[in-house]
Amino acid sequence: MAGSDLVQWEVTALGSTGPYKLAVHHARGTIVEYFTTTAAALSREQEIEALFLASCAPAPATAWAS
After folding, report:
1. Are 29 and 23 in contact (CB under 8 A)?
2. Cα–Cα distance measured from residue 46 to residue 21, given in angstroms and rounded to the nearest whole number
């Protein structure tokens, strides 16, 4: 979940030893990237997930000094 939107991801082997396709499905479309290892694909998924979560977080309040 990223906010109220469901985000799903999958890593698919395109051959017996790779490459591997990462697909991240979200409310506005799908992000597809290719990797030589599953570890690299999962690392990138974590990066993308963090970006989704950061984009849903409210902006920090700013205190203005007078």
Report:
1. no
2. 15
Nearest residue to 48 (alpha-carbon basis) of 20, 18, 21, 26: 26
**Cα dihedral: 12, 16, 20, 26 (round 10):** 0
Say how many residues make up the chain: 66
pLDDT tens digits, one per residue of 10-54: 999 999 999 999 999 988 899 999 999 999 999 999 999 898 888
Structure confidence at residue 24 (pLDDT):
95
pLDDT at 54: 83
Residue 65, helix vs strand vs coil: coil
